[in-house]
Amino acid sequence: MTAIDPDLMPVSELHTRLGIVVLEASAQRVVATMPVVGNTQPAGLLHGGATAALAEGVGSIGALIHAGAGRSAVGVDLSVTHHRGAREGSVTAVATPLHLGSTVATYGVAVTDGSGRRTATARLTCLLRPDRPHHPDRPDTVAPAAG
Fold first, then answer.
1. If pLDDT is split at 50, 70 and 90, which confidence band does 67 have?
2. Statement: residue 1 has pLDDT above 60
3. Which helix (H) or strand (E) holds 122?
4. What is the per-residue burial (b if ≥16 Cβ within 10 Å, else e) of 63-85?
5. CA 73 to CA 142: how far, in whole Å?
6. Percent of the chain having pLDDT more than 70?
7. Distance between CA 22 and CA 31 in Å, rounded?
8. pLDDT tens for each residue of 11-60
9. 13 catalytic per annotation
10. What is the pTM of this model?
11. Which residues are 26's β-sheet partners?
C-alpha cells in the first residue's frame, strides 16, 4: 500500500478555509479532521455543505493516489446522508475504497464526531483520467513540474 506523508500533499484553498487537516493518506484509507467552529449554519450546527466538502476531499485524495502519477481524479457523483448534528469540537472523516478501477474509483466516507458517533455517511465516485498537457492560456490544464 502506497502512503503519502500528509505534510507533503498539495493543500486546497477550500480545505485551508474549512480548517481541514489530513492525518493519513493512501489509496486504501484517508483520514482528515475539520473543526465545527467556523463551519456552522445559522442554527449553530455543522453545515452540511462543509461536511460534503470534507467527504469529497478525503475521497478525492484517495482516488488521486490510486490513479497514480500523470493522472487526475475528478468527482462525478457525491451523496451525503446527515445522521446527527455537531455543535462543537471537530469531526473526523475516514474514506475507504468501495471500488478501485482503471477509470473509476468510488469511496465510502464515514464522518464521526469527537465521541465517535456517526454524523454523516457519504459516497464519492471519481473519474480517473490522464492529466491534460499544460497550455498557458487555459487554466484548466496542468502546469509542468518545476525541475
1. very high
2. no
3. strand 118-130
4. bbbbbeeeebbeeeebebebeeb
5. 13
6. 83
7. 6
8. 689 999 999 999 999 999 999 999 999 999 999 999 999 999 999 999 99
9. no
10. 0.86
11. 3
> What's the CATH fold of domain 6-130?
Thiol Ester Dehydrase; Chain A (3.10.129)
C-alpha cell at 50: 462543509
- N-terminal to C-terminal alpha carbon distance within the chain: 27
- In the Cβ-directed half-sphere of 85, how many Cα atoms lie within 13 Å? 12
At 83, phi and psi to the nearest 5?
A: -95, -35
Q: Cell numbers for 100, please give them.
A: 478501485
Q: From CA 133, how far away is CA 147, in angstroms rounded? A: 17
- Domain locations in the chain as residue ranges: 6-130
Q: What is the pLDDT of residues 73-115, one digit of tens each?
A: 999 999 999 999 999 999 999 999 999 999 999 999 999 999 9
